[in-house]
Amino acid sequence: MTKQVHLAAHFPGVNNTTVWSDPNSGSHIEFDSFTRFAQTAERGLFDFLFLAEGLRLREQHGEIYDLDVVGRPDTFTVLAALAAVTEHLGLAGTINSTFNEPFEVARQFATLDHLSDGRAAWNVVTSWDEFTGQNFRRGGFLPQDQRYRRARQFLETAIELWDSWLDDDVSADKVTGRFLRRDDAGAFDHVDDQFAISGHFSVPRSPQGRPVIFQAGDSEEGREFAAARADAIFSRHSDRDAGRAFYADVKGRLPSHGRRREDLLILPAATFVLGDTDAEAADIAHEVRLAQVSGQTAIAFLEQLWNRDLSDHDPDGPLPEVDPIPGENTVAKGRASVRIHRDPRDVAAQWRHIAAAGNLTTRELIIEVTGRQSFVGSAETVAREIDDLVQADASDGFILVPHITPGGLDRFVDEVVPYLQEFGVYRTEYEGRTLRENLGLGARRRSNTPVRLA
Predict the structure, then answer these.
(1) 236 and 146 fall within a common domain
(2) What are phi and psi of 375, to 5 degrees?
(3) Hey, which residues does 333 pair with through a beta bridge?
(4) Statement to judge: residues 262 and 143 lie in one domain
(5) Ranges for the Luciferase-like domain (predicted)?
(6) What is the tally of structural domains in the chain?
């Protein structure tokens, strides 16, 4: 059976994806940027807009990282405002489970789901570093196994809060406009080794019942967490072989949790460069990569893996002869670049092999491993590549990350989407009212028993 392609848009966080030197590059804080980006995604019939969130500006060598000085507006505030200027587009926000509390987050997402008439989504993430924890009363950080344990229990608690209202617990008084509820509606009493809370949840059941749940972990714990509870998982595997392997692994975990393959969507992040011809697109992509990775940026990325001061290293020379320094105390504060590599020295060996095979300088190597675009070509070429990967079970669709904000989606929507529609693999209108319906996910009804994640 031919699969339908799902598309979403990521408003880029502060990183080297955005080509800041391009005159078309706009603000990442002004609301007009968010509005144009969201409305273009909706014009392209995308499923949702995704906002990342960082809870602290990044540092390197004790100074604010040069790609992070623009700041990070509050996710809920932006998404709530976008609910008023869009009608169908899903609104997905990354919210941390390590330093927030379940009642607060559940209340915020239930409110967003009401305000947007059923378009809210939550990307459940954890935070690994003490640097971020210094912003919060709890401080510190949690080891990986404890982070995922807290995340599981955090999500379990939030689901209990959302499910504390039955679908028929609330009715509208048509005369006064008041909400009327049963006395026991919203009652909850939750105790585990992370949370001990009780009371009444203050927001009635929202249009989706619960927001759509996203998860982005690639570790064993992250994959199992997603298979147990997530509606969609963000993947970094956008090429065919790695994508198929990841797809098969995660989808294969679903039956053990009583779930079907169609209950979880796998959506890799993907960058793109379009041209009138494939050759022109390749030339543009080369220029984009050079703009994304300056010599200074190359050294910054190198330091994040090597975990040592390399400010005197020549970006146009070979990789350092010394090995990376492993450990949790990294030079790049607030970034998981070192932490996500279980063995930095092994990654460095891989980089040396790639550099030697291509006779690459440090900067050229960093461009190769960090700055490559997922899709490069004419609109028809890119549309066919996207469709091919979806039909081959390498993904269920893609979350597009343009290198220009806010206008970077325009050409994709105007040129690539019509080809996907012509191929018969992409919608010509939104299927439903809620994000859950447009993603093809079943309705979330109230659980009769508390959710337990192993």
Answers:
(1) yes
(2) -130, 125
(3) 59
(4) yes
(5) 21-392
(6) 2
Classify residue 452: in a domain, yes or no.
no
Print pLDDT tens along the chain (454 aa): 899 999 999 998 767 788 888 999 998 889 999 999 999 999 999 999 999 877 667 767 667 666 666 667 889 999 999 999 999 999 999 888 877 889 999 999 999 999 999 999 999 887 766 666 666 765 556 666 677 788 888 898 999 999 888 755 555 444 444 555 555 667 777 787 777 778 888 899 899 999 999 988 777 888 998 899 899 998 888 789 999 999 999 999 999 999 999 999 999 999 999 999 999 999 999 999 999 898 988 998 898 889 888 989 999 999 999 999 876 556 655 554 444 456 888 999 999 999 999 999 999 999 988 877 799 999 999 999 999 999 999 999 999 999 999 999 999 999 999 999 999 999 999 999 999 999 999 765 544 333 333 3
